């Protein structure tokens, strides 16, 4: 859409920007109508009037015009004020400065009293073949015209883009996306072939694997993902939804798997759609049934991303357009009429699965003529359900196939009839779990139920903590080992640490029993208390020398952190919930989980219960954080001001100072930024933070002052504040603030010609970003190394790094301040001098992953640094 021929800095949410030019007071009603029309199409209005102010900052609105995609001019009676030393009004100057290639939509109000100079301008516009010129009478007419014209313009540009050559996008290797099955998948060759045919056909945008718990939907989806990588050259992504219970977290979870970190600076649905764009990808969504009401989101995504396909596992049909339902059947068992022979058993997928899993439990087990009849009987009673077969096969280490068959004959009919409200297959699955649980001792049984409150993975430390006072508490390790032996708990390695997990259907069973016995609330409180305590223990380490290790530890606990926060809100422990969220602010920022926290805080406020002043401040702050970057407004400024007041009322000066700094940062997003006010608020915040010893927030506030210097072109002051921010981060040995401050200083040093110093700083921030898994920081570092490669004449390397950085920005919504993308100008100069070399690098970079790009950027760094890169 952009009307200029070089890369432009887009809005943080990457929406099409519509620059609106008009006089301010005269056309106030019309301006609101145009705003409404633009926002109806989910575009971004650039709404400010510079022509009506003394000494209009030409450079500023030139910058905003350069960043915009469409020009909308609204003209009535007034030509606008002409500033001293200027020849034309701001109104005419904006039209003159709009690039010729930019689409221009001009709307002239019918009137008999128009200024002569405005008449001259309109006459010139009428002769301009790059502008569309229309009359209107009322604000309502104008709103409808603008909405219709923008929609037509977008349709035309979309059609043009479809005819242009697609740009390939980097992907991470499949092994980093889709889980690798622990064991061989048996008896699913036919289903895999059918799924491949559906995906290859290109007509079914959503293929839903539907069936009860334990039928093997997830395993089949994983196998299908691995088997069809050749159909999706731009990547296959696996999105586990097992621990996602709130519908509002579907998009953040998809975004996180795609590499889009939610720092609040982007609208996620649009960012995901842009990240997918023309990429031919498959996204596997596992366990969708618990948020099935969010299914229409998939329609919006595949509409915006025409080459994205979804493979969904769910117990219920999604019922959306474009869905093809694929019923996942149980494994085949020998018919009742067939003789129970060894040949029949070997020909049955269910029996082969039983034999494979039994052999894993007791090496040496095999199907024989002696046990074939019992194995067939077992598989028939289990109705071919894979998970039921696996659970029962594990008992072979204790019982013979004949003993197992006898016990099932006695227990399954009774157990099945006790849950007649469930589908037959689900009843059998539940009966199988109950039969397995029936073999446990009392403590083991109690522990299994209690473990149901944990999310996907949990640690031994967490188990021991929630077990305090429980019957199994003093023998937690031994009891947990028995559950592992019974195949009801899995032991896994994650991030170099041992963690444990329950199968989803086992967890569901455990929680159901716990709730029926009235013990769920007590255990959920114990779970939430443990993670609240963990958060407070780890929080001090999120600032300073232990930050990297603390972020890694919390990364292992994300699912349980979500579950704990959710319970705190549900249980009306609202002060605890707010404290939980606020204490982890650095982690949410580094790892991009602001959407989750904002949702919890909105739910908290929606309770309608009395809240403490501090809780009200926190609950307001997080949703405003997203508004601050996406839709900065006076309302956001006022809201953050209220957070400041409430924090002060709570005697929390540090938090008040942080909210004040956020308020100042919001003001910096305004086109007509007031430097004096921003500088005063940031100065007050820094004074408080310094006095309180909060170097983390102080460093970030100094960065904001430096960025203000860049915006106002006060370069000496900008460098002074960046230097101070770096010094504070260095003294605290804080990786995150060092990256943020260092990247800003390095870019300014580059602009000042201090290239060697800039290069050393970019190398440092890149290595710290890798260790911290901080995507935004890595992006700035890659762009810095691109700029340096460009000035050194290395066209291929500069082009490659530029392409990767552009992809990351397009997929993650990395925020930047106007005019501070230092690599664009030197890259453009090098492209003019060496177009083939730069183009070759850009083609190569389009195929690179983030890890590849970091490796290229750090090619000259020492071996120790390079060895850390693959760990990303």
List keywords for this structure.
5-stranded parallel sheet; alpha/beta; globular; 872 residues; 58% helix; single chain; 40 helices; disordered N terminus
Write the layout of secondary structure elements.
Layout: E1 17-21, H1 28-40, E2 44-47, H2 58-67, E3 70-75, H3 90-97, E4 104-109, H4 116-126, E5 131-136, H5 139-163, H6 189-201, E6 206-210, H7 217-227, E7 236-240, H8 250-258, H9 268-276, E8 281-286, H10 296-304, E9 308-314, E10 323-327, H11 342-346, H12 349-361, H13 372-381, H14 386-393, H15 401-417, H16 424-438, H17 442-451, H18 460-466, H19 476-485, E11 489-494, E12 497-502, H20 504-516, H21 520-538, H22 547-556, H23 558-570, H24 574-583, H25 585-591, H26 594-606, H27 613-630, H28 634-649, H29 653-667, H30 675-692, H31 695-711, H32 715-732, H33 735-751, H34 755-772, H35 775-791, H36 795-812, H37 824-833, H38 835-845, H39 850-857, H40 863-868
Parallel strand pairs: 1-2, 1-3, 3-4, 4-5, 6-9, 6-10, 7-8, 8-9
Antiparallel strand pairs: 11-12
């Amino acid at each position: 859409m952009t009307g200029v021929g070089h890369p432009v800095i887009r809005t943080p949410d990457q929406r099409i920007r519509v620059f609106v030019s008009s006089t301010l007071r005269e056309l106030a009603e019309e301006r609101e109508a145009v705003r409404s029309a633009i926002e109806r199409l989910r575009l971004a209005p650039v709404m400010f009037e510079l022509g009506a102010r003394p000494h209009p900052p030409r450079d500023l609105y030139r910058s905003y015009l350069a960043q915009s995609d469409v020009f909308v001019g609204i003209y009535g009676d007034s030509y606008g004020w002409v500033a001293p030393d200027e020849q034309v009004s701001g109104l005419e100057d904006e039209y003159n400065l709009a690039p010729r290639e930019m689409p221009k939509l001009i709307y002239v109000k019918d009137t008999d009293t128009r200024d002569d100079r405005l008449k001259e301008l309109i006459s010139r516009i009428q002769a301009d073949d790059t502008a569309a010129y229309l009359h209107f009478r009322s604000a309502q007419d104008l709103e409808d015209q603008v909405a219709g014209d923008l929609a037509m313009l977008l349709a035309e540009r979309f059609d043009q883009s479809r005819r242009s050559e697609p740009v390939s996008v980097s992907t991470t290797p499949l092994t980093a996306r889709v889980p690798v099955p622990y064991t061989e998948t048996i008896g699913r060759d036919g289903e895999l072939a059918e799924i491949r045919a559906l995906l290859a056909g290109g007509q079914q945008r959503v293929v839903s694997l539907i069936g009860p718990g334990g039928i093997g939907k997830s395993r089949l989806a994983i196998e299908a993902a691995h088997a069809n990588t050749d159909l999706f050259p731009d990547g296959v992504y696996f999105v586990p939804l097992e621990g996602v219970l709130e519908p509002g977290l579907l998009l953040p979870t998809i975004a996180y798997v795609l590499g889009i970190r939610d720092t609040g600076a982007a609208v996620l649905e649009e960012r995901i759609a842009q990240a997918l764009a023309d990429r031919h990808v498959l996204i596997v969504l596992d366990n969708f049934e618990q948020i099935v009401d969010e299914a229409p989101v998939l329609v919006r995504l595949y509409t915006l991303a025409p080459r994205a396909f979804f493979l969904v596992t769910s117990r219920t049909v999604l019922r959306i357009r474009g869905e093809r339902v694929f019923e996942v059947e149980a494994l085949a068992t020998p018919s009742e009429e067939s003789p129970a022979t060894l040949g029949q058993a070997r020909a049955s997928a269910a029996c082969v699965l039983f034999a494979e899993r039994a052999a894993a439990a007791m090496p040496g087990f095999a199907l024989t003529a002696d046990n074939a009849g019992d194995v067939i009987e077992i598989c028939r009673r289990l109705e071919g359900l894979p998970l039921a077969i696996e659970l029962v096969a594990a008992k072979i280490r204790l019982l013979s196939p004949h003993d197992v068959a006898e016990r099932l004959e006695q227990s399954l009919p009774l157990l099945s009839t006790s849950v007649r409200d469930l589908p037959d297959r689900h009843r059998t699955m539940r009966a199988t779990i109950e039969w397995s649980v029936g073999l446990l001792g009392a403590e083991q049984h109690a522990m299994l139920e209690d473990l149901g409150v944990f999310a996907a993975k949990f640690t031994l430390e967490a188990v021991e903590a929630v077990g305090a006072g429980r019957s199994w508490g003093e023998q937690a390790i031994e009891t947990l080992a028995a559950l592992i032996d019974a195949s009801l708990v899995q032991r896994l390695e994650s991030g170099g640490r041992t963690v444990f997990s329950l199968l989803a259907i086992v967890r569901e069973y455990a929680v159901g029993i716990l709730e029926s016995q009235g013990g769920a609330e007590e255990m959920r409180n114990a779970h939430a208390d443990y993670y609240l305590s963990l958060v407070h223990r780890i929080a001090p380490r999120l600032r300073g020398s232990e930050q990297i290790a603390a972020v890694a530890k919390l990364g292992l606990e994300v699912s349980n952190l979500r579950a704990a926060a959710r319970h705190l809100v549900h249980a009306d422990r609202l002060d605890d919930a707010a404290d939980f969220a606020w204490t982890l602010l650095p982690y949410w920022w580094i790892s991009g989980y602001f959407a989750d926290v904002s949702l919890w805080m909105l739910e908290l406020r929606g309770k309608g219960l009395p809240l403490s002043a501090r809780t009200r401040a926190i609950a307001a702050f997080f949703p405003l954080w997203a508004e601050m970057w996406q839709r900065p407004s006076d309302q956001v400024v006022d809201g953050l001001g209220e957070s400041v007041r409430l924090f002060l009322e709570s005697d929390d000066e540090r938090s008040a100072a942080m909210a004040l700094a956020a308020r100042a940062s919001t003001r910096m997003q305004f086109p007509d930024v007031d430097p004096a006010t921003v500088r005063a608020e940031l100065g007050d915040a820094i004074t408080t933070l310094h006095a309180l010893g909060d170097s983390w927030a102080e460093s970030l506030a100094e960065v904001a002052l430096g960025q203000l210097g860049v915006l106002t072109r006060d370069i000496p002051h900008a460098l002074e504040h960046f230097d101070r921010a770096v010094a504070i981060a260095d003294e605290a040995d804080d990786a995150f603030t060092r990256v943020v401050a260092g990247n800003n200083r390095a870019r300014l040093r580059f602009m000042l010609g201090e290239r060697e110093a800039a290069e050393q700083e970019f190398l440092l921030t890149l290595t710290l970003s890798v260790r911290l898994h901080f995507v935004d920081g890595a992006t700035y570092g890659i762009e810095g190394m691109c700029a340096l490669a460009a000035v050194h004449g290395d066209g291929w390397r500069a082009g490659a790094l530029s392409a990767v950085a552009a992809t990351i920005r397009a997929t993650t919504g990395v925020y930047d301040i106007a005019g501070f993308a230092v690599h664009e100008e030197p890259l453009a100069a090098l492209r003019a001098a060496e177009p083939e070399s730069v183009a070759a690098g850009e083609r190569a970079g389009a195929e690179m992953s983030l890890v590849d790009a970091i490796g290229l950027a750090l090619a000259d760094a020492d071996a120790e640094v390079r060895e850390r890169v693959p760990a990303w």
